[in-house]
């Protein structure tokens, strides 16, 4: 419904899909239902008796293909749970979203339902019960809500959110903040219970206030006005009335909550509850205290005298119903007495100062709540329904007003729906006229919520646009839900209401423009009085695509003449707008005639057509205007001098024309490069012609100073991202500064041949020197842009291609060029080693391999050719930027780019790995140290500490996400290793000096990564080594799935030193460690060695990071793990020889005898090792003689001939401890031989070893036979 001056009632709402009612029903079904609409108009609740239906907004496409919003039933069912109870009131409250990205849309909507049993229940949109509470034993009469409103004026009390429930003699209020939090918690708990399949835990009861409304016969409706503070005069008046002559007055007026009720005896009652006090009025305090004392004494006396023999029966009956708190009595302050009038409903205004009341006499009364008085009354509105509409002043209304800087005003309208007359009226407040009336059905329902989203406050509401409807009308006969919108200007007085008439004229003009009637459009435009609407109408006329140019010119000219006749009364801005538009229209006509005479359609017909369409909508658009004016001249199809003369006569400044020419030249780069000779010649002609215009080049300018005219050309080229077109324009402009007409032909040949013109140009002035620098910069940008436009391989990340221009590179600082190339390297997914070969110019092509691979696929050859071309292009860029793209600087930026991309997506572990590889390629230890320090402190240390604490808490065997964690910890180890090596090498190598090319020395912007790296402080080597030690232990634990608490391997000093700034000096562990701690460390290292031996012989064990190319020696199978464990043993005060002996035993246990023999050479205590190997040899022989299912006859005979001592010893061995029991006898024989060499002759088990050697030899000979 549109609430403008138009008396029509268009249906702009959404249809309602409802179930069909029986045809024999005389009254519409909606009249007997309780209806509530969410303020967001996305949920409608219809309830009757025990049933209810929830209708949600959905988009659908009708038969004509038009999309429209509909309300369809999403849930229906029974709401009553107790026998005999019925739905008496319902309200839908949208709850605000707590997400930062929210823009004012509700997160979900809660349906609050009141029942005749006194229960209040809260439901979700799908009918799930969240909370139910019995607040009072009487039926619920009305539910109302108040949400947060931004105070429009300073000093206005900020109202808090609140839900109020009215009973026949009590009023319950629930704080909105606590209700919001409780509902969110209940909804989350229900969702978790549904997902887990468990029962819902009953939520705690809501906290509320209950007031017993006294001294009023019947109450049928109420309004909670909110917290208010009386002025000092009203405070003294009330104190005198209530307390008499000797009443005392407090220093500050108390804050009170105001409630207004309607009913009978009196007709309207005003109640005030003082905030913070349980009892607002002094007259009731004594009564309440006496009542409580009397009840307590009576209960005590009844117990003494034996009067409570039925107490148990009463308690049992009370347990069946929830306990209901008694109401705090609240006396009426004053009222509007009218014994015959019965109030039916009250509707509070959005500003909380007015209220509309309906009664059984068919009257609508307007109450001033601050004064407590009726200030207006309407008659003849029986069974009326009320609503309020608050409209904010439009931004355009104050454009020509002297009070434009003041805050926008608000207008208040009262909506009255009279169902018996079938009319909807709109009245301006407080004493304004009726501004609108609409004929509607007699069985509609006016839906006015009076609140917005719950959960909004002064902080979260900033930047929000609340998408709420204030008043809607539901028509059950057609199923249409119509919104009511009223323009602000209807609240103005009749003298200022000319805008309403102008708005009608504007709508009429819009209808006239659809059929292109020039005469009617002119008359309508001239009738409009308001300047803002007249300007809007003129813009609407000029933006009409269907209107011909002649029509636009005639109408605009008529308006211009009319404005000039008005003299000083007309607005200067409107007159200037008409004048400028007339000039543009005349210019358009003149140039179009020139192009038509020269037959330019063959060259630029599409351009002219597009210009004709788009030029009408955006006459001042830079590109389309320049396209229309100059593209024909650049193509050589339009007379250049005639066009320039026409443009000069139009009054357009040469600077604006130059801007238009450069815009079309740069934007149409592809077309320019298709015909470079012709377009360059025409551009030179146009530049010369524009330069000769009056006001172009200053007459006082000489070649020894900078010309503003040519500076404009340079500035445009510097900002352009089209480097090729900008370079051609710079070359042409450079020559145009000094060249004579006879030199132009030679210039065009040089431009088209691509020769270097700098050698022929002599920098004899500041102007020419700036052109030389500009041309050199554009050449560099062109080469760099060519590299950046190389397409990325399929499947690689990186996003859009970065645009390149001189201005962008200068604003990027000294590292802007390297930063652009590093982003290109990331998009190309170029390996660090390949980049190193290109930068060092060592990349060679093997011709012999190419001959052998002639039969390969053509795609591989194309890929190789593209890679070669890419390498050559990168070399060309590096040659043009030898300082900005030095190897160390480029590797530093590539390292930083990859670690930044890894920080954005930590799941891509290969980014961090490649970043570390780039870091390794930096030759300067000073830059390497600074980059490593920044990487560690910015991106790594937080995740590293989180990983350490996680492994400390979850000390179980790790399987989930072990690959990503292992890769990350491996990169941390390498990063800290690089940091230590760079710190050690800094003293031997001097600090590098960074520089940039002379032509790019004027760059302004942030410092490069290398410069920031050189500014970093030095690190504390022991602290770095301490972190490297922890990272290595974590990496080892993850690589071999060792169950350990890593931080428990360090003492308190060591734990406190972790995750500190590497540049600070910390108290490090020193001296001998606790033996128990050393034992834990030794056990961990022994398990790591065991895991390495198992992984070496395990074919299924692979690299921890198969998703990207890792180092050749990386992974659990790497050969450097044993030596690393030995180094760790030295740092952790663990005896390395124990580790070596354990490694030898584990290798033999795994059946890797050859590796074990190599490891034996490093063992110092051979005697202890021999004792361990003797047991392992016995286990192997025991398996061959006693536990092997394929036992031979010779083995059984040998077992019978063995000495009893040896036989008993072999039977005591447990071969199940061997991971590889099936070992050849030759390997076992060699093991026994080494064992005898290790054991001295006086050893207690030396004779046993000899027996073992003899048994193995006999068994070997029997197998050979």
From TrEMBL:
Domain Rab3GAP regulatory subunit C-terminal: 656-1240
An example molecular function term from Gene Ontology annotations: GTPase activator activity
Highest taxon in the source lineage: Eukaryota
InterPro entries: Rab3GAP2, RAB3GAP2_C, RAB3GAP_N
Keywords, ordered alphabetically: Cytoplasm, GTPase activation
Region (Disordered): 1-23, 842-862
A Pfam entry, by short name: RAB3GAP2_C
Main location class: cytoplasm
Biased composition (Polar residues): 1-11
An annotated GO cellular component: cytoplasm
Cell compartments where the protein resides: Cytoplasm
Domain Rab3-GAP regulatory subunit N-terminal: 29-447
Family to which the UniProt record says this protein belongs: Belongs to the Rab3-GAP regulatory subunit family.
Record's protein name: RAB3 GTPase activating protein subunit 2 (non-catalytic)
